[in-house]
Amino acid sequence: MTGRPFLVHGDSRRAERANRSDWADRHVSPDVSGLSPSLRARLARAWARIGLMEHASIAAFARFTMHLLALGAPPSLLDSAQQAIGDETNHARLAFALCSAYQGAGVGPDALAIDGALDGFDVRQVTATLFREGCIGETVAAMEAREAIDDTRDPVVRQVLVVIARDELRHAELAWRTFAWVIASRRVDPTWVRDEVARALSEIASSGHAANANEDLRAFGIVSETRRDAIRREALWRVIRPCARAVLEREPARCSTSSTTSA
Fold first, then answer.
1. Which end of the chain, N or C, is more open, meaning fewer C-beta atoms within 10 Å of its C-beta?
2. Within a domain: residue 142?
3. Range in 46-50, 90-94, 250-254 with the lowest mean pLDDT
């Protein structure tokens, strides 16, 4: 459930956690009875991490919307991007509500550094960021959220995951629609895109994490790093590679902005 990462010059940014209660959805109350203090602390840390990533996704989609405007994108893509900002805000509030319940005190995000996030405008860099943040990041997030649902026992946590999984799937579809539109509109050289996609796929194929202390938290909606690595590899081979190949092998059409409003 990392959502869309907020990448600035190749680094993923997110805020630090802060003691505040205004980001927690007051209607979300998981069952904390019978949980030890140490388990509650671990769950609070895990859901804080998710909340901070979802919070960073708001910035990623805000910048994505600006990039769409700079590219002359059709209104259908802009409408979906605006909806995604609201989705990510809701995801962050849901995650911080779970974190706050386990913590026993309000938790939310501190200020997010955005310096350098809009440095210049280069269609190649925009396309590379779109593929990494959206086509890869959102596809993996959608599969991870769906995976987390199956083992979650608390119905409140389960419903949070259902909402996140539904929205992340829609965000992944938006990323692929946008990627296809950029390629079809010939705003960037196809040969360069193929090379950049190959680099991104190589990066995700070689990434991985050591097993961590959250291996036993799947009943509370937390996917372990070991399982996340497996989901990432599965997403790469079952979804990301085939989709990228389908987009890149499609005969590119010479189209104007006005002819792509059905994207």
1. C
2. yes
3. 250-254
From residue 240, alpha-carbon distances to 14, 109, 139, 152, 248 in Å are 25, 31, 7, 26, 12
Return all residues near 66 (Cβ < 8 A) that are at least 6 apart.
Answer: 118
Q: CA geometry: angle at 53 spanning 156 and 60, to 5°? A: 125
CATH number for the domain harbouring residue 170 = 1.20.1260
For residue 40, tell me if it sits in a domain: yes
Please give the mean pLDDT across all residues of the chain: 88
CA pair distance 188, 180, nearest whole angstrom: 12
Record the tokens describing residue 43, joined without a space. Answer: 């769950």
pLDDT tens by residue, 21-67: 999 998 999 999 999 999 999 999 999 999 999 999 999 999 999 99
- From the list 50, 206, 1, 235, the residue with the least C-alpha distance to 139 is 235
Q: Which of 4-8, 19-23, 145-149, 237-241 has the highest mean pLDDT?
A: 19-23
Domain count along the chain: 1
Q: Is residue 83 part of a domain?
A: yes
